[in-house]
Design brief:
Elements (H helix, E strand, L loop, with lengths): L5 H21 L5 H5 L5 H23 L5 H21 L5 H22 L11 H19 L3 H11 L4 H25 L5 H26 L3 H20 L2
Length: 246
Amino acid sequence: MEALTTAELLYFCFIIIISYAIRGSAGFGGVTVPLLAWVLSLKTVIPMVTFLGVISSIAILRTDHRHVVWRDLWRLLPWIALGVAIGVYFFKILDAATLARILGGVVLAYGAHALLATWRPPGKVNLPMYAITPVAGTFAGFVGTMFGSMAGMFFAIYLDILRHSRDAFRATVAAVLFALGILRGGAYMAAGEFTRDVMIACAVALPMMGLGIFIGNRIHANLNDVAFKRLVAVILIISGLPLLIR
């Protein structure tokens, strides 16, 4: 792994624990890549987060697989694959910083809307899901390829629109991110991105990730549905901020 000072290593461990505590409680997270990019290169961070994402999804699904809403997963998968392909192509020609700020604004605005919605009765949602599903899957696959862990936010928005219970929400978003991780991981492996530095970073991060998932599971077990929706909204807001200042 890239040479880190003691302070940077402690920061690395802290961010991994916090990130995967969020992941364990909500099923997704979006703060890992932008925060770790302060001490490690994206060439190391993004493949590492892809690997950890697959492992953390397995940890969540080990007990929650029965809550997965499989029909929503199967509807998304082909569009996710398309988004990954588009992301690989456009990564070389788009201004990632500008795109990140735009995405951050969208996520921040939706998070604020979702948080406010928990304090008033939700109205009837009548959205054309046949149109939203391709857009959500393609866009999230694209974002996941461009920005690593950021895809979870857009899957969260999609599943929030469908108004699943907290258990179904967490399990389904974990299953979707597992599928995306396999697709992205295969692409990175084919491109030779799992370097020695990446594997060392994964080895250092794994125990920190395990502790974070353990903490997140305890948080999830003690949340009611309203508190869970507020947690998801706050995570979206927090996740959008690093993108805006990227």
